[in-house]
């Protein structure tokens, strides 16, 4: 028996940029993500910019995970291989369940553009307290690739055969 596509349901999504060198006014990747959240029909719940500090990152994302109004978090930046990049270490410990294939698929998709440099991306995703969390590299191109190819379809209830929408929302627990 075929499953009918569910109707689109707007989600409340928070966007976080992790950077030691940009301000909100210079944050083209955060601007891109905020724009596509709106363009897709979702609500931008919050937007923030923090430095590469695992404890500040963990504190803010923990608050968003606990907030019943926030259903997804998209983080850009801090996923590279340099010592100062803290996003995977800060965020992965918060996951109730990692989305195992996200990073692998992101690296696979970015290989066409970056070649072997794609192995240095530490993009990750997971679920925590019925909140989807996606961590992308900080370049606007990486945010575009991650949003268009992976995140947007999974945050759309009409995507078949499955999507994350039915797993989101603290009110339904």
From TrEMBL:
Domain MoaB/Mog stretches: 14-158
Protein keywords: Molybdenum cofactor biosynthesis
> Which superkingdom, per the lineage?
Bacteria
What InterPro entries does this protein map onto? MoaB, MoaB/Mog-like_dom_sf, MoaB/Mog_dom, MoaB_proteobac
Per the record, its GO cellular-component terms are: cytosol
Q: In Gene Ontology terms, what is a biological process of this protein?
A: Mo-molybdopterin cofactor biosynthetic process
A Pfam family = MoCF_biosynth
- The answer to keyword Transferase applying to this record is no
Which pathway does the database say it acts in? Cofactor biosynthesis; molybdopterin biosynthesis
Question: From which residue to which does any coiled coil extend?
Answer: none
What role is this protein assigned?
May be involved in the biosynthesis of molybdopterin.
Family (UniProt):
Belongs to the MoaB/Mog family.
Cite the NCBIfam families for this sequence.
Answer: moaB_proteo (TIGR02667), molyb_syn (TIGR00177)
Name of the protein: Molybdenum cofactor biosynthesis protein B
């Amino acid at each position: 028996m075929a499953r009918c596509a569910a109707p689109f349901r707007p989600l409340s999504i928070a966007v976080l940029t992790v950077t030691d060198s940009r301000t909100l006014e210079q944050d083209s990747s955060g601007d891109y993500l905020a724009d596509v959240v709106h363009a897709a029909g979702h609500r931008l719940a919050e937007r923030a910019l923090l430095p590469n500090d695992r404890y500040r990152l963990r504190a803010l994302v923990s608050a968003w995970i606990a907030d019943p109004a926030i259903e997804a978090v998209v983080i850009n930046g801090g996923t590279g291989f340099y010592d100062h990049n803290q996003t995977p270490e800060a965020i992965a410990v918060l996951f109730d369940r990692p989305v195992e294939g996200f990073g692998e698929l992101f690296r696979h998709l970015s290989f066409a553009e970056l070649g072997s440099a794609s192995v240095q991306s530490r993009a990750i995703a997971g679920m925590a307290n019925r909140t989807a969390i996606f961590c992308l590299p900080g370049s606007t191109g990486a945010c575009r690739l991650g949003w268009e190819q992976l995140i947007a379809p999974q945050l759309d209830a009409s995507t078949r055969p499955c999507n994350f929408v039915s797993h989101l929302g603290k009110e339904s627990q």
